Amino acid sequence: MRLFSKGAAPNAARALVFVIILTLALVALLPIAWMTLSAFKLDDEINQIPPTFLPHTPTLDNFLQLFAQFQFGVLTINTIIVSSLVVALSLSLGGAASYGLSRYPFIGSNLLFHIILVTRLVTPASFVLPLYLMMNALHLTNTLVALVIGITVLNLPFVIWILKPFFDALPREIEEAAQLDGVGPVGIFWRFAITLAGPGFKTVALFSFIAAWTDLLIPITMSTRSEGWTLTAGIVQMQTGFKIYWGALMAGGVYLTLPSFVIAIAMQKALTRGFRTTF
Fold this sequence. Notes:
The protein has 279 residues and is an all-alpha fold.
């Protein structure tokens, strides 16, 4: 005797998958929801036992404290500058490198591409000391330039890995027609290849921005003064040996997360198309 009809089994399987995905999503979103709600609580309520989920007396004091005490105005400007420059350098250098590996193969180019991928698997902490020594020798520590260079270096293997499949998939007939019209390799890259690989560049731009916006390792390594910090380094300063500013810490987390979340939602279609082409 069958327990399920012919069409009931697939429906039950889909329902089970939906329940599992929903449960995992709730588990992943719970810390974010807790952080967001705690950002509107006073420190006494955050430390209260038993804890409260919804704030009894919502307040914006924690967000005001970010700018009044922790210099989030300056840190925001620093982070915007660093993130913008990292995105620009990642797209230009990574795009040119991936296009060259795709269209102008040479002996060992495939090996070089795999070596680049391997460097992505190495923990970023392994590169911090060499980068710091280089920046110190060039007298660039405690500057935003060191942050831009360091984050870009760590980000480039990912950029090349994402963009190369896009260039591999482009029809060569368009480039051959452009060559017949007298367009050189650089002109083909800037005028045609970048446009046709637009979804890939949007995907890389998003991840490069998030990588720069949320990076902590490079800012706390390259800078010991606030003028060379970004938002992540500013949040670290809320944890001292004498006190943890829990309200400001939660507000800082929301402030740091919100731009990446909004941009990711706005670029969702391009992001999905980018990953389909890559994988």
